[in-house]
Amino acid sequence: MDFFRAQDVARRKTGRLVLLFALAIISLIAITNALVLVTLGLTSTSAGGAPVFTDVEPAVFVSISLAVLAVVGFGSLYKTLSLRSGGAQVAESLGARLLLPGSGNIHEQRALNIVEEMAIASATPVPPVYLLDEDAINAFAAGFSPSDAVIGVTRGAIVKLSREELQGVIAHEFSHILHGDMRLNIRLIGLLHGILVLGLMGYYLMRTAGVSRRSKNGNGVIFLGLGLVVIGAAGTFFGNLIKAAVSRQREFLADASAVQYTRNADGIAGALKQIGRDQRGSRLDNPGAREISHALFSQGVKTSFATLFATHPPLTQRIRRLQPQWDGEFDESPAPGVTGQAPDHGSTTAARQRSDAALGIAAVAALQRAGAPDSADVQEASRIRRQLAPAFLRAAHEPHGARALIYFLLLDPLPDNTGAAGTAAQHEYLAVHADAGVYQELAALIRDREQLAVTDRLALINIALSALRQLSPAQFRMFEKNMQALMQMSGEPSLMAWVYHFLVLTHLRPVFGGAASRSARRRLEHCAKSCQVTLSVMAHLGQAGDKAGHAFSCGAAHLRACLPALARAELLSRQDLNRESVQSSLTELQQLQPRDKQMFLLAAAACIQSDGKLTAAEQVLFQTCAEILDCPTPALF
Known about the structure:
By secondary structure, the protein is an all-alpha fold.
């Protein structure tokens, strides 16, 4: 799947959702006005006893229409604001609990390991994992972006599925994270809540309508109550129709992406078969399941008019797309002629051992895998995770150690682990201002610093982000303040530290009340200065001395066709670069349209590969920059 095209498609789907929502509101306004017209006609009779419909003032209909808009609008706004903290709010509203490493439960730890491997393979933050105490087999991903995403799984899924099957389910949910489906899902929850508010009001008024039976307008009240029930049913009808319209096709795409990630159709097909033969299947008992039914891995609630309102395709259709020769039986025997078997990893590795002359092709291939890591990436991620230094991996998994790990990377951005780990002023500051126990954790990491490989840094940051999301708002503000102080006390410009600092804030600020999403409307031709600054940073980090100028020219050459202003631009010296200009440039590049981000990343790849070689530090730099731009990209090799 083309990640950049998928991002554009997700934006168009959001527009389609707004159109469907508007049509639903127009329909509800029409039904409500008709109801009021009938009610007023029945309560205002002529001398002959016949209903009077002609005496209703047009202003009444205008008022009713505005009232409907207000109820739906405020209902949607309230729900959307209540979900502004992202996926964690959705999971907690369902009563799910956060899974933590070291619980001693083998099934829970296996689920955490699979999620970490998928995140490392796709170069995204590791999403927190929440457990729903349900015997059914199901899962979901929720959030506005990879920064605030969570994955929820049921106890039935982690206990009843094999590792291969659970990996297929998790890969399916990662597809929703990487391709913009989550944002659509959470907006759908907010918008549809506004429509359903009218239904809730209808049921409430219908229950109290009996009190008015003995009044002179009793008939009108009864009809009003019945009418509001009809409006509630209409709201439910439109809500279910919209959810079904925007959900079903995305499930086929997510299934296909899961096979692309794992190169194993047996895994996800096996999970779907387990649902088909399991007594509980995928149906949830949770009362909140209906609200998020469109975000689940499989049909989570029972619907009337199943074909019309189903948010997911039938299991048989999904399995046959994965295993065309499946015999239709939900048994445990392997399907003949399975097309999604694991690949020959020896040939995959050989294909990646390209010559120096083919580095540009490698960059194009890596961006083609943006948001779609393949099985070799997943295997490499599993290897990286197993080989992470135990002290650093342990620290990344809990909030105190995670803060210490980030402080360590800001103090010690040098790729070869040489030199002092930070200045004396930085250490003195942290000893006083870091939360209790954090500075001691930092001291332990400094002692073990030789165990840390260059390629481990981005993976550790993405693992640590999950633990950092557990901070309280006050703890995060102190953490943010301490990082800022470390940057200001740095003895000399540390470009990689600036990049790491910006990456951490990019992912954490939305979780703690910052902007939940970034506009993707800017064009590359309006960002000449930001391109010059960012390419200069990458040139200095990738090359030394005079070679940095050549690296910058190689990167700029890729953009001059669409950005003529760069033709006259030159490499900025390290002295001309400061943290504010670097971070403001990255902020502006984050707002580029998806295809423009792709063009910039190709220029960045040309910059760091200008000498025909690619070091481990340069590879990490490229992936970090891609992640900052919301384009999670697997390793170049």
